[in-house]
Design a protein that fits this description.
268 residues; alpha/beta; Rossmann fold; six-stranded parallel sheet; 13 helices; 11 strands; 40% helix; AB_hydrolase_1
Amino acid sequence: MTAAATVMAGVAVGTFAVTANGASRPAVADRQARPTIVLEHGAFADGSSWNGVIERLHADGYSVVAAADPLRGPHSDAVALRRVLDHVKGPKILVGHSYGGSVISQAAAKDPLVKALVYVAAFLPAPGESALGLTNKYPGSTLPDALEPVPYTDADGTTGTDLYIKQDKFRHQFAADVPADQAALMAATQRPIAEAALEEKATGAAWRNKPTWDIVTTQDLDIPAAVQRFMARRAHAHTMEVAASHSVAVSHPRLVADVIEKAARATR
């Protein structure tokens, strides 16, 4: 095939372009058609928990935003996430890990630009349900014994209790399949969640009217697999089970990215 014919073939296909070093990459039109992936972390974590997933999504041509979750309560955290969603133009896929699932369920309600939801070892509460109530629906969570409560007083005088995972129990409880040195960093940088956030009842459930995917972690010591399966079935989610800890986005970033991309492709 001549050089001119090669160029014309590429135009006709319209999916890939060739870079200076000969590698293929998504063409401009294809990249622009893709939804932005918005990631919401959960309790005892921060945006860096998505780093491995983000690297793979970027390599596959997706734009990504990892939102900072205040971890104060589903309603106020959903308001914070809405500010991020309003800033991101065009269609979006919303992904939540753990408690972040409660937040995306509320933030995505009545938003036509959120095309799909992906739950990663996460809560899918119905209105009137709380993360704590769902966790206790089936036995298996050992999280209560690993927690360290720390009372706080805000500048306005409001009092409450923050919850941390004890650092010497963090890996076993939260990240058993993550290398020890990496889990130690995660333990040191964990962000606490307000105890009240786990007790606050949901008021929205976007999974009721949006395409939903769910990754169920069968070795999870935070949210028992039986609880995750119950929520996934109720939401009629496209479900994948994996033998992983609660920190599946850290231990299996390619798998998590693949499920997100499936959701993105299915809604284009």
